[in-house]
Amino acid sequence: MTGITGRVLAVAGVTGALVVGSTSIRTHAETTMIGVPQRANANVSIAADGAFVAAVWSASASTGATDIFAGVSADGGRTFRSPVRVNDVSGDARVTGEQPPRVSLAHQPAGPPRMTVVWTRKGANGTAIAHAQSTDGGRTFAHAAIVPGSDAVGNRGWEAISASPRGFVDALWLDHRELASSIQMSAMHHETGGGKPDGVAMAQRSKLYFASLDGSIAPHAITGGVCYCCKTALVSEGGALYAAWRHVYPGNIRDIAFTLSRDGGRTFAPPVRVSEDEWVLEGCPDDGPTMAVDRDHRIHIVWPTLLQEQGQDPNLALFYATSSDGRAFTPRERVPTAGTPHHPQIAVDSGGGLVVVWDELESGKRRVAMARAQHAAGKANFSRDVISGGEPAIYPVVARAADGLIVAWTSGGATESMIRVMRIATGSALMGR
After folding, report:
1. Cys-Cys crosslink for 160: which of 8, 234, 292, 378, Cβ 3.0 to 4.6 Å?
2. How many domains does the chain have?
3. Is residue 4 part of a domain?
4. What separation in angstroms does the CA of 179 have from each of 118, 159, 208, 232, 273?
5. What are residue 32's DSSP bridge partners?
């Protein structure tokens, strides 16, 4: 096994007053900054197994070379060990906010959970998806391997991963192997006066792929017609696999779709349209869905879509819907936001409640907000707070830890940004308990 430690920094924060909107309230919230100095730290993902918390992110040098780092906490996110580089080929990562490195934790009977990190890197004929594992709590990582089926021609990514209770790790991604050849054909068609290609027909060549990292389930396409560069969502719960993504429907409508598998990913049910939002767009919004499944196997999805309200300019809004069986979803319910919201992420807290985080742009500044649901009369009834400080904040993520929530986001300027990690203890004001 190899473990490459770079120049790293981990700075502990403090417990105290947290600014919420224009009000300062007392919470059980602690913040920590992690990252690699003299680099742009961004694109964070997190996972937790009890008190064990893992964060993975990209750290880019001024030359543009990008590496994947992992930082681990054994005390519920209060402190983190110095980060360790995951990718064994220096500078090979190709990630963005909508396709960050992903991390999953598989619980082990003894010792720390098995940690799997997945990221997109440059391949011979486009991009490929790599993965590496750690069995010693994130101190070292095995040499990277290619996710089965992800090394074809063309670009792919926007992946999601999930670990089953038995420890199997599965991957879901958008794959453009067919689109790569069709783009070449389209260019020739245009040069010969064939006119503009059909966007919906082109989208049919963009596929949603699934595979198990250990090769037990062969890589295969679930469906075509997926939006080209919006993140996907994958959850393993109760012996089933749940997947969500943005689909391209006739008329270039970009709505959210869902499917599930009850045989470990060998087959998937026909896709279900979560909500008929009728968002017509000649292109990709780079803003996909997020999903969680609770202990009662109820499915919860949050997503952004364009909203046209009377007397106002069109603007993005976040919506929520739920389903008990995956065959149909409740009518959408709006999540309260301010400004222009983007990049939602969702988690189920220790009490079974829903927590959503996102970033929103208002008055030229990006900040991170959180909403918690209080279900009543069949509605979620979200309440919203701003949880970031004065620095720019973008692309938050959230996970449930042993005694609270862990929220992380990219904080600061573009050239030397850091990852801010916030631990919100159960019983704090933001938890709504």
Report:
1. 234
2. 1
3. no
4. 23, 17, 12, 18, 23
5. 12, 421
pLDDT at position 9 is 46
Q: What is the dihedral of CA 298, 255, 371, 68, to 10 degrees?
A: 90
Do the domain assignments include residue 329? Answer: yes
Residues 6+ apart with CB under 8 A from 186: 197, 202
Q: How far apart are the first and last CA of the chain?
A: 44
User: Can you tell me the distance from the alpha carbon of 152 to that of 141, in angstroms, rounded to the nearest whole number?
Assistant: 25
Per-residue model confidence (pLDDT) at position 425: 83
d(CA 73, CA 62): 28
Q: What is the mean pLDDT of the chain?
A: 87
- Averaged pLDDT, groups of 10, the chain, 433 residues long: 41 33 44 94 97 97 96 95 96 96 93 96 90 97 96 94 89 93 43 51 89 95 94 95 96 96 96 96 92 95 92 92 96 96 96 94 95 83 92 96 94 90 77 48
Provide, for the chain, the percentages of residues in helix, strand and coil under a 3-state DSSP scheme, each rounded to the nearest 5: 5, 50, 45
Q: What is the pLDDT of residue 181?
A: 66
Per DSSP, what are the bridge partners of residue 33? 11, 420
- Residue 117, in any domain of the structure: yes
| Residue 32 dihedral angles phi and psi, to the nearest 5° | -135, 140
pLDDT at 311: 77
Rounded CA-CA distance 84/137 in Å is: 11
Q: Which domain holds residue 249?
A: 9-431
Q: Which of 287, 215, 300, 276 is nearest to 246 (CA)?
A: 287
Residue 183: give its domain's CATH number.
2.120.10.10
* pLDDT value, residue 8: 41
Which of 21, 20, 41 is CA-nearest to residue 29?
20
Say how far apart CA 316 and CA 287 lie, in whole Å.
Answer: 10
- Which residues share a beta bridge with 52? 49
* Domain assignment of residue 30, yes or no: yes
User: Would you state the pLDDT for residue 354?
Assistant: 95
Give the pairing type, strands 9-20 and 23-35. Answer: antiparallel
Are the beta carbons of 70 and 56 closer than 8 angstroms?
yes
Ramachandran quadrant class, 78 (left: phi over 0; alpha: psi -120 to 50; beta: rest): alpha
CA 1 from centre of chain:
28
| pTM: predicted TM-score of the whole model, two decimal places | 0.90
